[in-house]
């Protein structure tokens, strides 16, 4: 009896762990792009910009299919990034200001659509809250498979373009002199980030997804000076934090997974900062 219960819990919990750890690993690696570009706000801006796409898709289709809602969110996030690049190139407004405006405008529009959905009392509208606040308990097996496949594709693109990405991150002037189209390169880099941020909404929610991208990179930066080890440590940190947060959340009743993962990352970051400051003092 106990063996059967343990086996049931194991088979239901294992896919959840795989999905969250895979997401943490991928976000950790791809988040190094934003960290090295000093654009940490992009993660938050994109995660907020996805919300109107998700709500609009649900309002038009009344579908609770996560894949369809993910697609709507990616379109909305893509539009926000396109506007950011366009406004940055055509005006003298600083990128941080543009991101702050886009974040507020898109998220506000998303809430307007959310209010319309609530007034119409559309069936299954509770699924919108999963993207807003995150909910790992309702993560389905097909969603885990989708996360794994998407992560493999995104990481493959990242590794296949390793040399180009490295040049872009460290010396844009040299990249331009080599003939790289910087605008197209920026679009490519952001195209790696939008899908993984969209997938992260289901687990972390709109507010916390940006942390899953930036915190692992900030932690890894305290431990290494090498680009390769920096990226690897960031991925491992993201995966391990996601694993620890999920286990802690599952061990206590009514403890949300997303915030726990963020707390675990915060503890790792604090320890890393203290360790790094001590090393500087000794040297």
Characterization of the model:
The relative contact order is 0.16. Helix 3 (66-90) runs antiparallel to helix 4. The chain has one domain: ABC transporter involved in vitamin B12 uptake, BtuC (Orthogonal Bundle), CATH 1.10.3470.10. It contains 11 helices and no strands. The longest helix is centred in the last third of the chain and has 40 residues, at 182-221. The termini are far apart. With 283 residues, the protein is mainly alpha-helical.
Which features characterize this protein?
283 residues; globular; ABC transporter involved in vitamin B12 uptake, BtuC; single chain; mainly alpha
CATH level 1 class label: Mainly Alpha
Distance between the termini: 59 Å
Shape call: globular
What is the overall number of helices? 11
Give average pLDDT, whole number: 84
| Count of the separate structural domains | 1
Largest sheet: none
Helix content: over 70%
Label the structural class: mainly alpha
Supply the CATH superfamily name: ABC transporter involved in vitamin B12 uptake, BtuC
**Unreliable stretches:** 4-10
Give the total of beta strands. 0
Query: In angstroms, what is the radius of gyration?
Result: 19 Å
Look up the CATH topology: ABC transporter involved in vitamin B12 uptake, BtuC
Tell me the CATH architecture.
Answer: Orthogonal Bundle
Strand content: under 5%
């Amino acid at each position: 009896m106990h063996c059967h219960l343990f086996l049931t819990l194991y088979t239901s919990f294992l896919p959840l762990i795989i999905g969250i750890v895979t997401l943490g690993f991928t976000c950790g690696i791809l988040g190094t792009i934003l960290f090295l570009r000093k654009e940490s706000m992009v993660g938050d801006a994109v995660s907020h910009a996805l919300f109107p796409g998700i709500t609009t898709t649900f309002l038009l289709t009344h579908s609770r299919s996560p894949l369809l809602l993910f697609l709507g969110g990616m379109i909305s996030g893509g539009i926000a990034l396109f506007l950011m690049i366009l406004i940055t190139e055509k005006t003298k407004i600083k990128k941080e200001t543009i991101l702050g405006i886009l974040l507020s405008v898109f998220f506000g529009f998303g809430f307007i659509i959310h209010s319309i959905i609530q007034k119409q009392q559309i069936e299954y509208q509770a699924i919108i809250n999963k993207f807003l606040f995150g909910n790992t308990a309702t993560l389905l097996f097909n969603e885990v498979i989708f996360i794994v496949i998407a992560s493999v594709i995104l990481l493959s693109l990242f590794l296949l373009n390793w040399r180009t990405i490295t040049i872009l991150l460290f010396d844009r002037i040299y990249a331009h002199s080599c003939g790289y189209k910087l605008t197209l390169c920026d679009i490519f880099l952001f195209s790696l980030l939008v899908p993984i941020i969209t997938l992260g909404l289901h687990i972390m929610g709109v507010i916390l997804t940006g942390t899953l991208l930036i915190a692992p990179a900030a932690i890894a930066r305290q431990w290494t000076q090498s680009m390769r080890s920096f990226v690897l440590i960031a991925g491992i940190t993201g995966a391990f934090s996601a694993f620890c947060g999920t286990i802690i959340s599952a061990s206590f009743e009514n403890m949300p997974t997303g915030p726990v993962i963020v707390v675990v990352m915060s503890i790792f970051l604090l320890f890393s900062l203290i360790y790094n400051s001590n090393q500087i003092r000794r040297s």
